[in-house]
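Reading group handout, session on sequence-to-structure problems. Before we discuss, look at one worked example. The prompt was deliberately terse, the way you'd type it at a terminal:

> structure Oxidoreductase

The input record follows.
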Amino acid sequence: MDLKGKTILITGGGSGIGLEAARQFLHLGLKVIITGRNQEKLDAAKKAYPALIAVKSDVAKAEDAEALYEQVKRLGGIDILYNNAGVGVPPLNLGVANDRHVEGALYEMEVNYLGVVIRLNNLFMDMLKSRKQAAIINTSSILSIVPSILEATYSASKTALAFYTKSLRKHLQIIGSDVKVFELLPPLVDTDMVTDRNDKKISPEHLVKGLIAGLKKDQYTIRVGDANVIYLLNRMAPEVAYKLINSSKDYHSIK
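And the output record:
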């Protein structure tokens, strides 16, 4: 995919992976619009990278998503929709009855799957179809390959997203659309969401470099770092892959 001259919208762009993606896409000469819920983070991002266009929006809410679409349209539209925003709730013991299981599952599914991806994709689809070499990037997870015992609902939300992404890509191909649909599968990335984890992590910079390399090669499924290792292991020795994902000492604390 030729990224030159493109305009990209990055959800969850105020920090972490989204902000690093904004930095690297700006360096490549793209027009970058970021959105997020935290105005302070957006202001800080804008201060660090003045070329950014920052729009406060909680895209898990229908009214915010629609307002975001209208503002993006006034800005001239986009060529690439990067669904980067995602959430995770603190791990819970699924063997103990607790209303927090339901609350957490609803929250993760709404943000990671239903709200952000399907809602935004539907809103921006016609705009993207009207552009030359447009694309959607959905961020699933290494946990869509092998589930985590402690992050069961997060794993489920990302698995739903992974299947949806594959189905959307095939559907667009069948109807003759030129919109490309990419799936990014990160391993554990060193962001605020996992600061308390001692497991092996990669940097957001490493992840985004892998994403951009995959986009340029039209590699529709982009696995970075250990995500590729786990994918191959899961095909050849699924029990080994499962043990690797669930090897942290935290998993052995379940009672």
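Points for discussion. First: The chain has one domain: 7-253. Second: The chain has a mean pLDDT of 88.
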